[in-house]
Amino acid sequence: MSENKTPQEKHYARLVDELTPNSRHLRGCVRAFWVGGLICTIGQLLTMLAQTLELGELTAPMFTSCALIFLGTTLTGIGVYDRIGKYAGAGSVVPITGFANSVAAPAIEFRREGMVLGLGAKLFQIAGPVLTYGISASIIVGVLYWAAKEWLL
Amino acid sequence: MEVFWDLLKAFVVGGLICVVGQVLIQTTKLTNARILVLFVTAGVFLTALGVYKPLVDFAGAGATVPLTGFGYSLAMGAIEAVNSYGILGALAGGVTRAAAGIAAAIFFGLINALIFKPRAKP
Prior knowledge:
- The structure holds two protein chains of two kinds.
- Helix content of chain A is about 80%, strand content about 0%.
- Chain A is mostly helical.
- Chain A has two domains: about 1-120, no CATH class; about 125-153.
- In chain A, helix 5 (about 95-110) runs antiparallel to helix 6 (about 115-120).
- The mean pLDDT of chain A is about 90.
- Chain B is mainly α.
- Chain B has one domain (about 1-115).
- Chain B is built from six helices and no strands.
- The longest helix of chain B is centred in the last third of the chain and has 28 residues, at about 90-115.
- The model of chain B has no long low-confidence stretch (mean pLDDT about 95).
- At the A-B interface, helix 1, helix 2, helix 3, helix 4 and helix 5 of A face helix 1, helix 2, helix 4, helix 5 and helix 6 of B.
């Protein structure tokens, strides 16, 4: 088949190869953009709600993240978040609802392996590394900031 | 009108941060878990460099809802606790500030797993 192709056909096939993944990438980015943006907009609405409830500057973001986490785990439980994830890719992974999903999904899945080493342990399958590196990084930053304050100022 | 702009800023900035993640997934085949770890640590260090705070002031939830915002809470907590408690604040501050989110994820995750049955992957 392929050896019978005219140069034009070969050129066309190469063009198709070059263009198809690009448009797929673009589509993935557009989906990630609007779904991720929408989740952040919901977060902004929740923050505004928190402000009308007169929560403080520190408690308002706390309220927002807890509400979004509740949303994320619940949507995971009823099986909706997996579908959003298939559609939106990083748009569903990067917001904090994606973190909630990464906690809830393995917890549900591994419950059959027991309450302690199944549910309890696998709950941290992805959240564990996130907390390990996130908290460690914050400690490094805190120590560097302390050192800079002690010796430079 | 003010409200509309705040929502639009959150939408655009939050969307763009997710696009960064999507580009990383598509070009490097990073798994979701690595993306999560990368974004939280990036958030911590961007906050330490002073880049992320202006973004949070500008975009509100657009910057705090993505996981870089979780890193922002950790780093701001550590820095503020160093100001009030000295070196031990570096250990206590980050988790203190992010405690509600972490606890919520664990608790809601647990309750969910108790209520809902595992289902076949779509």
